[in-house]
Amino acid sequence: MRGIIGVDIGTSLTKAVVFDEAGASIAQACTPSKVHHLPKGAVEQDFEQVLGTVATVVRDVAAQLDGPVEALALTGQGDGVWLRDEAGYPVRPAISWLDGRANALLTEWQASGVTREVFRRTGSGMFPGCAAAILSYLDTHEPDVLDRAAVAGYCVDAVVQRLTGEITVDISDASLPFVDPVTRRYDEQAIAACGLTHRRGLLAEPAPPKTVFRLGAAGAALLGLPEGLPVTAGPFDLPACAIGAGVREPGDGILTAGTTLACQVLTRDPTFDPEGEPAGMFLCTPNEADYLRAMPAMVGTAGLDWACRLLGIEVTDIGPLLAASAPGANGVRALPFLSSSGERAPFVDAAARAQFSGLSLESSRADVVRALCESIAFAARHCFEAAGLSGTLYACGGGVRSPEWTQIFADVLGRPIVIPGDPGVGARGAVLVAGEALGEPFDVDLWAGNSRTVEVVPANVEHYERGYAEYQTSLNAARDHWTL
After folding, report:
1. Where does the record place the Carbohydrate kinase FGGY N-terminal domain (predicted)?
2. What confidence tens digit (pLDDT) does each residue in 260-279 have?
């Protein structure tokens, strides 16, 4: 057993896990983070509270170990903007990737060609909760805040700065939207296209691959760990989950059914179609030969949470309700775009909104839940078609804890789904990256062996082919009518 604590700083939950040499978790802890939903689509987090969750889970897991902690491996949520000063203290609350205050700005950028210009240079689309849109919004509405800030970064590097004193950013976080994936450097013309050249100094330079930081005195006191302890930072949670799940061959993909419905496919070709739909992300990874074409849709488990509140049910009721309604949900259909900031993959539209159709007096709660779950699976298929899935498909996240919903995903996607045996997939990825950076890599084949496969039901695959065609028709019709 190596005492590397993997920490995944999620949007609503921070987890810490220690794994044995075979990749099985031997100690773990989690604690919630607070997400503040404010008027006009604003979504923020208190950085000090989030940092406190890291201290809580690290101390908890360290107390469970028989031996010493040897390193700390961090991953966490991406996008948004976490502004702080030279010492790493926030100059305003962190703005989440879920934020929608820049909806109107993003719509203007789409009309004026800004989003297309940035996509041509970086392969990444922009959405209201990405750093470019938020920074531009703040430059207009809160310029004094940007004047006080020393760095505009992300969740993981904000935590790293407080723990180690280093101002840095992982290349995966920096990828959206300003990094040219071929050069792995910021594209100055992409920054200029967003009108942010005068704020260029807020962007930290990406750390080289396999960079190892050291825990400073303040970080050591916060975590109760020795000063000088090795710390690795990144990649952020999307590529970390891909690494942790076992995605290693071009064409392999991973479905993360969490707050975000993240669909990613591995490629070793850094080129992209500059005239394609300006959506998704082209993510650099710790391995300079590997890239992830990511389509992180906004239609994840948050939609199921909404349905639970609306229908007066618990999350534990989802499985039985799915079982109580046949494929096709007795004619009920849905578009799942419930986020107040619209959609960001495989298309970007800040005005995207959900709809249900085919409802009658005979429709049940089970039909509504199944229609929503099927529509999210259709959205996943749309994303994977855009990302180029051709190999093995892996899956993780809270959504795949439901056997019924996982079966829907497999049947809609028309392929088996490999589910890693340990739920802490993001932390697994961070720890695997840490092993490489520390010069003591783990046996990735051994780690990948602890998994199960969900096979498709052929009759359902045929049914969902028709359902997906209907979904596309409804989506295309709806896009003509969405307005802010």
Report:
1. 4-244
2. 899 999 999 988 888 989 99
